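Training component of the fellowship. As part of building independent skills, the fellow (R.M.) carried out the full modelling exercise for a liganded target. The chosen ligand was iron/sulfur cluster. The inputs are recorded below so that the supervisory panel can assess the work.
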Amino acid sequence: MREPEPLIIRPPTEAGSLLLRVTRGCNWNRCKFCGIYSHFGQPNFEVRPRDEVLADIDAARALYGDHHTTAFLGDADPLAAPPEDVLAILHHLRATFPRLQRVTCYARASTCWRTREYLATLREAGLDRVHVGLETGSDALLKFHQKGSSQRLLIQSGHATRGAGLELSYYVLLGLGGADRWEEHVRETLVVLNSVKPEFVRFRRLWIYGEEGGPSCPLWADVQAGRFVPQTPEGTVHEFRAIIAGISFPTEIEAIHPNVYVRVGGRLPESRQRMLDKLDGFLARPEAEKALVYGRASAI
Ligand code: SF4
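Fellow's submitted model of the complex:
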């Protein structure tokens, strides 16, 4: 039996979702800390033909039945496909899987901004939430890491997305300011978060991978040349704490990825003190104990 084309990555929260590949790879592909799609064999961006995606929906229905209640559209930026294609895909998906309660996708902030006049229509057609890599709110760091966005764009795009009725899930990348610009990273990230007020704030830690002659993320060369000084593990936990402490609106925090040193989660403001206590308790532990945690997480 024909199988739907598989995705490369999806958010952890979409582990049980029906996964549907609308585009292949990332249409930006330049962020210095990433390289994930190239690494997994998809260096180029492609919009899949609409009929192929519609046929995947039918194939998924034949294979799995209609029990799915959530669905996720990939790869990195499915809203970069023509809006009429995305609409047709959403309509067919909702009609074929009538039990769906939530449909989400990854999206670039710039794509949300560029397609802002269609977002409300996509919402009506059944798209509920977009997962956007905020990474940082600092203009200087966004530029250095070649993220292709700016604080102004992030704020405009975030408001447009939420204004269209879509839920917004932001990903903050701890460590992106390195050891010397972490305060700027925290301060400017809070400017964006506290302006846009996304429904979800999720945390990941910068992972710089590379080896002489082997596969490397583009940031590896900056580290080797001294242009980027990685944040310390302890500094990363302090960053994390400062952002949790500085968020001034109700939202859901999620930091369950194994590469963050201290996993916390819950709703702000109700669970803020519990999360801060957990982070403070970790920071107060003996150095040897923390070193074990840092060592284990660094290998992920
Ligand atoms: S971080 Fe996102 S936008 Fe940047 S290259 Fe990776 S997938 Fe593309």
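The panel noted the following from the submitted structure. Residues 1-107 form one domain. The chain has a mean pLDDT of 95.
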